[in-house]
Amino acid sequence: MTRLRILIKMESADAFELKAQALNNDPHLKAAGITALKFTGDKKFIADGEFSSEPPLSSAPAAVPQEIKLAPARGKKLRVILRMSSEDAYELKTQALNNDSRLKDAGIAALKFVGDKLYISQGEFSPDIPSPEAKQAATIDEKIRVTLRVPRKDAYELIAKHLNKDPDLAKAGISGVELAKGAGMIPVAQETPAKPQKKKRSFTKVLFATGIIVLMGVLGVGALYFFTPPAPAPTEAPLIPVSARDTSTPLPPTRTTVPATETRVPSTATKVPSTKTLRPAATRTQPPTATVLSCQSPAEVVVSSDFLSCRYGPGADYLYRTGLAKGDVVDVLGRAETSTDFGSWIRVQNRWEEPVKCWINASSRFVEIPQGDVACLESIYPEKAPLILFNTNLFPQPYNVQASRSGDLVYIDWVGFDLLPGDKPEQSPRYLVEAWTCQDGKIVLSPLGVDEPYTQVRDEGGCAEASYGYVYMAHVDGYIGPVTVPWPP
Fold it and tell me: Which pTM was predicted?
């Protein structure tokens, strides 16, 4: 017999009452399958009304009088909170949704998991706990649970249709939709039934059966013509892997909204010639008769710190993408023209079996450059390495974005919202502001991560091009946005 160790958090009064029942060897405990108890702070178990250093051996439960099993417990409910592993929790939730009879045998009438708003009772979601006298009504139609693995965008769209009670789902016979958070349920393999032997039929029976089949086919085609819901409008392709995202065309900078699919950060208003052309190293001087030396870009760098974060964008406030260890060699793809306050950032690609492209700080504290100069690299952000976005109808973008100026400081504020656990990235700012401002006579990027819906950035005068910026909300799968900042003159 298998034993299960359960940790229950309850009020002190209930704990004392339960301990008194255990010390009095109350038969209700054995009827519930409880053979031993041990309370926080106690050194020994309570088994059979006595203290014991070890729990009793597994054995068949003792016989309990019928009146004790049924009469005293009728109409009473006990709320129990259990802390268990995710795998066991998903299995228990599956049993509850499938209305497993073993839960009723254990006296469990309803379940509610942390983060859920509804109880699970009799295989359905319910806002309230069912009364003890409630009985499950006999159902005529049988239900079948189907598990599909679809792109995240399509899954959210299906859930949205279910929440909006879309009639297309009812026509398709779909009464419930849920998002699996684990590895997903795998249908149980079933043996193929043996093929029955063919029986000889007369020519008249065969002709009659053929006519029935043809008639059913005609009726089926007619039913499909009149009752099949209209085909959905074509949608964009599902999320693409990170390695393929960097080749798509960026959006124009004046666009304030993006479609509900994985998109890219808008490009800058105008390319700055000084940042797009290769320039010779400042320390190299050429005599009039010497050949002009070209600026050499580094092809690879070596990680020198014990651990180095590789991020979605060129800055420490961007989402964490992956990690690099000391001694890792990565290929260099380009750099970003960022403000001196945010350091020098380069885009790299690791040499794993499945390469990942991300951004690292190019400071000598973190990497070693065997050959070349980072300043010789081409500035590729965001035109050739756009930011990964995650936009769906389920998550609205920040709105009511405003900006005002006081000298060289621009104040930006907006209205946002908070994400639920699981959608909100851990240890990352809630919002991201990308501001391309004039500093030291040129337009540079100043990425700012904040948790409150406001920030400020330095914007000097003296640049031929206008400054601009965008506001995003951080999501575990990318950024929600962008929303254009109405930049003050």
Answer: 0.44
